[in-house]
Structure formats: C-alpha cells, structure tokens
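Problem statement: downstream parser choked on a complex file, so we are re-checking the raw output for the iron/sulfur cluster run. The parser issue turned out to be on our end (a line-ending mismatch), but while we're here, posting the original submission so the record is complete.
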Amino acid sequence: MNAPLASPPSVKTTCPYCGVGCGVKATPDGLGGALVEGDRDHPANLGRLCSKGAALGETIGLETRLLHPLLRGADGTLARASWEAALDRIATGLRQVIETHGPSSVAFYLSGQLLTEDYYAANKLAKGFIGTANVDTNSRLCMSSSVAGHKRGFGSDTVPGAYADLESADLMVLVGSNTAWCHPVLFRRMEAARKARGTRFVVIDPRRTETAAEADLHLPLAQGTDALLFSGLLVHLAGSAAFDAAYVAAHTTGFPEALASARAMTPDAAATARACGLAVEDVERFFALFAATERAVTCYSQGVNQSAVGTDKVNAILNCHLATGRIGREGMGPFSLTGQPNAMGGREVGGLANQLAAHMGFSGEEVDRVRRFWGAPNLATHEGLKAVDMFAAIGRGEIKALWVMGTNPAVSLPEADAVRTALGKLDLFVLSENVIANDTAACHPHVMLPAAAWGEKDGTVTNSERRISRQRPFLARPGEVKPDWWALAQVAGRLGFANAFRWRGPADIFREHAALSGFENAGTRDFDIGAFVDLADAAYEIFPPTQWPAPRGRPEGTGRLFAAGGYFTPDRKARFVSPRPAAAVAAEPPFPFVLNTGRIRDQWHTMTRTGLSPRLGSHIPAPFVAIHPEDAAPLGLQEGMLARVASAHGAAVLEVRLDAGQRRGTLFAPIHWSGATASHGRVGPLVHGVTDPISGQPDSKATPASIQPHAAP
Ligand code: SF4
C-alpha cells in the first residue's frame, strides 16, 4: 500500500495528463488512495477537473508498479537487483558503447510526462557530458510542428496568450482539435464564454467530433488542407477592414510575399473551397466572421501538428493573426494547445534533439554559452536525430545504447512493430518506468529502473499557456522507487561527472535551470526565468503557478506577449511565412482510405494509468474504427462487427462504428490500446513514418489504409 506523507494533510499539485495543466488538491485517504479535487486557486482550471482528472485517485495503487530495479541476466530474464548493481551496469554499458562507437551511438528518448527537473538532468548528461544530441521525446509526436512554426514566425517558441483569452474572445476558431474531449477543462472555459458573451465557435476538422457538434459553423475540410484554408483567409483579410496595416508595417516582415503566394494558391473563397473540399458559402461565412470579429482566438492542436505539412499549417494560422494585429491582446491570438502535461517544460530545457537548453539552439554562440555555463567540454555541437529518425537509426544498428524514460514507444511511435524490432538490437537498453509491464518493457530491456509516479514526484511542469506549476508529492515513494533526476545524476557520477550533478533535490535543479535561462541573456531571449535564480527552498515549495518569461525583477511573470511587437528575431519583427502548396491527402488502392488516429475522452496515452479506473474504462471499453455508413455498406461492414484495418506497415482488428460524421474516404481509430490491453487493437503499427520535413513530427492523421470484415481464424 502506498503510504501518505505525514503532512500537510492536503497537497496542491498538478494533473499529470493533458497540457491544460489543471491544479489539483490531493488528500491521501490512508488506504493507498487519495481524494482528488480541483484546485480553485489554480488559474488554469479555477477548480474544474475533467473525467480523467477527477478519477486520479483511482489510479495510484501499487498493483502494476515497478518497485525495484531489474537486471537482465544471461538467461534473458529480468531479475531484481540493487540500485548499485543497476547503476553500475548502465555506466559500464554506456562507457563501452561510447569508447567503441562514439558518443553519438548513445540516445535518450524522453517524455512529456517527465518533470522539468528530470528533463533538465537528462539533457545535461546527454548533450553536455556524454556529448550526444540524440535526445528526443514523445513530445515530438505532439507539438513539434507548433514549435517550428513559432520559431519561423516569432523567432522563438512562444505561445503569445493566456487561457483568460478564451473567456474574453468573441470568436473561437478550433482547428484540428477535439477540445471537448482532449482539453476538456479549456472547452468548459470556452463554453462559459459563449454563455456569458455569445462567443461563436468555428470548428475546422474533417470529423464531426463532439467539439464540432457544438459549433456554430463546422468546416469538415479534406485532410491536410488547413494551410490552404488559412491562405484563402489571408487573401480575404488583406482586402478587408480587418487588415492592420500599421501593425504589419511596424512589427512584421514578409507580408507582400506571403500575400502573393496565398493569392497564387487560393485567390478567393471559391478557389479555397475547391481546394479544401468545402461548400463555398461555408468558407465565405468563416472568412466574414473572422474579418468582422476583432476578439478572435485560433486554437489548434494535433490535427494541425501531426501532419506532413504541420509547420506550414501553423504558419498559415499565425499569418492571419499577424495581418490583423490580433495577437497578445485580451481575447485574441493564435493558441497552440499542447497535448502533454510537460511538453512545454521539456522544450524549455532542451528536450528536443534540435535544441540545447533554455530555448537555445546549436549556433556557435549558443553552444559556447551553454558549454561555459555547464563547464561541459564534451557538449554536443550539432542537432541530433528526431524521434522517428532516431528509432530508424537504432534499427540500422547505428545507435547502440538507448535510455527510455516514462514513455511507451513500442505502442505510440509510428510503424510501432519496426520500433519493437529495433529495440531488440541494442547493446544497452535502459527503461525507467512506473509500471512493471507494458509493450516497451516486453522488448527485453537490459535494465529497468523504478521511477517515481504522480503523487510521489516533486518538481515543476509547464502548461500550454506558459504557466510553470509545481507537482508536489503527497505519497511516500514505495519500495525502492527513486526520482528520475536522481538516477541520472548517479550515472553521471559513475561516468566521472559528479561535480556537475551534485544536486540535493529538485529545487537545486530548478535554480540552475533558471540561472542558465538568464545567463548572458540581456533580455534578448524569450525563455528567461532569471527571477528565480536565488529562489529559496521554502519559496520553491510554495512556488505559485507563474507564466514565463520571468526575468530578473519580474517574478510575477508575463501574461501576454507581442501586442506591441518585440518578437525574438534579430530585428524584433515577426515573419510572414508562405506555406508550400499542398493538396488534400489522396489514398489509392490497395489502401483507398485515409486513416486518422487520435484520442478518446476518458483514456490517456497507452492506458497504463487511466486503464486502472473501471469508471474511465466504461466510457469506450474496446478499440474501434469509425467509418462513414456509405463507405461501410459496399464493404459489408456493419455496426459492432470486427474489421481488419491494414496499411503498408501493419494491421489491427477493430470494432466497426458507423459514423455519419466521418468524412467519406476516411477512417478514425483511437491510439490507446496496446499489447497489454488488446493486442489486436494496437494502431501504432499501422501508422506510417512520414514526417514533416521541418519539424520532424510524424503525420499520424493521414496513413493510407484499407478496411474489410475480419475473417475469424
Ligand atoms: Fe487533467 Fe487535462 Fe483533465 Fe485538466 S483537462 S483535469 S489537466 S486531463
């Protein structure tokens, strides 16, 4: 049984699921569980919780937990070992691989579930001291197109607004986002705005989702055409009263070129409608609504990001807000809704292979700055491999050692069966996990380390509105469970780097992170939390939810940015970026359907935690595929029967759901089921490994696929 910490009786912490980052008040019940309530004082949720958050107390038992280190023996089986033996095995294995194959043959695959302090420690060890930039994260699958789009448009990875804008907007545009299911508390805040001020909703999504069903206008565009729709909108805005010539002249560059490019692709609403497969009157209505409504927020999520043209989609959206100057002011702006609880915190400390730390890249100046700050002569000097390329390199035998922390790539990565095969080729495979069994743990790790779980973890996370919040422990760590940062520091010590990893706890790491963010900064970088360089331990303990940047002298943080320009480009101006021309995704025999994958309301990722709650499991108990009835009929597919869905990469057997809200020629299947829950329901093996060439984000929304009735064996 999980023991409560002695005091205080209730602890304020942060939900470990989606990027909304809701505040939670947890009170241990003394029986291993906890009473969980929304924290009324947390600005993200103001006391609200969704079904997943409300069920957190049901998911913290020890039945499935990994409680001790495990080492693989000569007979191939995992057996309990001491921490000393496990850490020695990792250090010895890393040293051998580095000496034989070089530092780039080592990789780390991290997770948006990790705390910022854990992420920081992993990046410092890998990039700073081992000297490999092959450090990527499952956040690559979730928001890296937004990161790349922000950097192209703003010169920095910055979300300009705050959640409060969702309640003061008059027009809410939701693009590729089933907000009602995937960011439920934000959707409730949007609904509150609709009730209070009549906010209108436009939902842009090929599927008639639960969110689209609530919309004033639903645009079920053809898969992959979002950038064309916003290109058409830019043309319309340029000729309307909404065009803000003064803002464009003072704070941006590249508008004439972007407009010319947009006019060539989508000269008017009719051309836009044709390109996107929409009714022209619906496109005209959207354009008119957007032009006429100054307080407009455009939220976008995985339907935008998880695309071969995801970065272009993001910039097409940013272009429309730049052209109207609707950015960084109350009730207006583009807003990337992050999927994971700490996808943004990971970005802050260099969790992506193309970043160092504190949003710095690999320019000579930035490499030099980080090298001097860390005292790290081995610092990696070039970008590493992004997630899909990293696992391909493992499959080719180019990467020999991999440390996976807090994620389940054997289920969640595209072409997941090839990922399983690749994991079997490693000389050293280390897995830091909460649970003793999942699909990745079944891929024969050499070492498994028992990691602290939610309720035991101590550190910070950052949500979609740049708000840093504390995750605080309210349960004692069971068995021999340890924090991830501790295991990393122990290995660093064994590799001879102890001096750089002498942290007493997460507060030490947070202060170091803050100091690096403000190091030789002079206010020119977006990510700066220099105000917290000298934060006392007691102040870290009660650290209030705070939006960065928070440079020295501004510990209260910053709610909004860019209303008066001040972008993080060399000339402090934003960039209009022209999307590349991209037609709707086409699918042809033998794979005539476009398979879209996504989430359902009551499950999280691969269900290792939400799967423990019968209440959550009762919402949608089995893996399914949604298909339009008119596509299903000629194939002999009926509601409830089993179908075999296949792509060039794999197959799954899923229950058929007839859904008239599904666009013709498309399928939808949820991502959550794994070998541990319903082996036939894994869709990861089907998803193609196509990525956006700029962001490296997988195109998980548009895999060519086939479907037919399942012939029982
Ligand atoms: Fe947790 Fe997201 Fe639900 Fe909030 S909306 S309770 S962060 S899952």
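For whoever reads this later: The pocket of iron/sulfur cluster is lined by residues 15, 17-18, 20-22, 45, 49-50, 52-53, 183-185 (CB under 6 Å).
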